[in-house]
Amino acid sequence: MNMDIDGLIITTIVGLICIVLGYLVWYKKMLFLIAGYNEATFEGDKEKLAKGTGVVLIISGIVTILFPFSLYWFGNTVGIIYCLILIIGMKSKK
Q: What is the percent of the chain with per-residue pLDDT over 70, rounded to a whole number?
């Protein structure tokens, strides 16, 4: 098995983008980065929204960076686990 360097670079870049966006949403409270967020119509707790979305983005970024290594070492089963982690993360955000 050879590790595809192009895939490694792409997943690392995408993971880092997710981590940076998570930081901006959680710590810098840049809620406008969240798709569908409208400050005029939002009635919930902005702190909770920022933290929840930021944490999910950061975890998704870390898992995305680790994904090609996991595929290389453990095989295709990791892809199913990766999808489940992302789905659970998105569901817990709501």
A: 93
